[in-house]
Specification:
The protein has 256 residues and is an alpha/beta fold. It folds into 2 domains: 158 residues, Rossmann fold; 75 residues, SIR2/SIRT2 'Small Domain' (2-Layer Sandwich). It is built from 10 helices and 11 strands. A hairpin with a 2-residue loop joins strand 2 and strand 3. Helix 1 runs parallel beside helix 10 and helix 6 runs parallel beside helix 10. The two termini are 26 Å apart. The structure holds 2'-O-acetyl adenosine-5-diphosphoribose. The site of 2'-O-acetyl adenosine-5-diphosphoribose (OAD) has 28 residues, from helix 2.
């Protein structure tokens, strides 16, 4: 594990391989932090004294759906007013340069998309905050159809509508899970970047390790240590908006 000159490392790696650059990027809340979107854990992870990690649960919605809707409405508003940062833009640039690319993001915001990353290149494994869905049946729709002042109900079965996100303890969406599995099954990656996530979920660590299984670089971008750190071939202990543009520029200039 090193915190040395990334460009030198990538130059050496590129000289040793003539590869098709296959890339997996995994992001979490830290990548949107510099766009002003609060993270889930740590100092930022509170809203009106409630812990964000506890609000994003089915139990919280059952107990107080209005409170949870208010939290998501405020988050949605904040996201709408935010702009993608240099980290989001660097990832979109990497996607354009790589031969094969997939982003798996735990973020429910649309900042990767607004930075120019196509939906086909991205899996939002924890859902999308701009979609709502029925608590009971399969009905889903765009958030714009909901009215802010009332608790929205399903037009089909009258159960409460809820944000179209995955809450702690819930199953991941099957189709999105399959997209990640298919990408990993098709081959190992030359470059895996894990940025701005505490990597608390086993599947995040598992995907990063599977993708880098054949000696690919595994770069972690995070000011703090996480469970991924021990497996990383390189660590960038910096904010994503600073580290990602540098990493992407080094990769792009030495791989083509
Ligand atoms: P967390 O809030 O748990 O972690 C944010 C991570 O970003 C931490 O490891 C920080 O050290 C790091 N960080 C903070 N600022 C950063 C910056 N400027 N640049 C880079 N890194 C920075 O967010 P996630 O790991 O994304 O799930 O949380 C995972 C999931 O837990 C969320 O998707 C959410 C939550 O429960 C659900 O809602 C299902």
């Amino acid at each position: 594990m090193r915190q040395t000159s990334l460009s030198v490392d990538l130059e050496t790696a590129a000289a040793c391989r003539s590869y098709i650059m296959r890339v997996l990027v995994i992001t979490g809340a830290g990548v949107s932090a510099e766009s002003g979107i609060p993270t889930f854990r740590g100092e930022d992870g509170y809203w009106r004294n409630f812990s964000a990690a506890k609000l994003a649960t089915p139990e919280a919605f059952e107990r107080d759906p209005k409170l949870v809707w208010e939290w998501y409405s405020e988050r949605r508003q904040r996201i709408s007013n935010a702009r993608p940062n240099a980290g989001h833009e660097a990832i979109a640039k990497l996607a354009r340069q790589a031969d094969e690319f997939l982003l798996v993001t735990q973020n429910v915001d649309d900042l990767h998309f607004r930075a120019g990353l196509a939906n086909e290149a991205m899996v939002q494994i924890h859902g999308n905050i701009f979609v709502t869905r029925c608590c009971r049946c399969d009905f889903r729709r765009d958030y714009n159809h909901e009215h802010e002042d009332v608790l929205p109900r399903c037009p089909g079965c009258a159960a409460l509508m809820r944000p179209g996100v995955v809450w702690f303890g819930e199953r991941l969406p099957w189709s999105e899970l399959q997209r990640v599995e298919n990408y990993l099954d098709r081959g190992a990656c030359d470059l895996v970047v894990v940025a701005g996530t505490t990597a608390t979920f086993g599947y995040i660590i598992n995907w990063a390790l599977r993708a880098s299984r054949c000696g690919g670089e595994l770069i972690e971008v995070n000011p703090e240590e996480t469970p991924i750190s021990q497996f990383a071939t390189q660590l960038a202990r910096e904010p994503a908006a600073i580290a990602l543009p540098r990493i992407v520029d080094a990769t792009v200039s030495y791989s083509h």
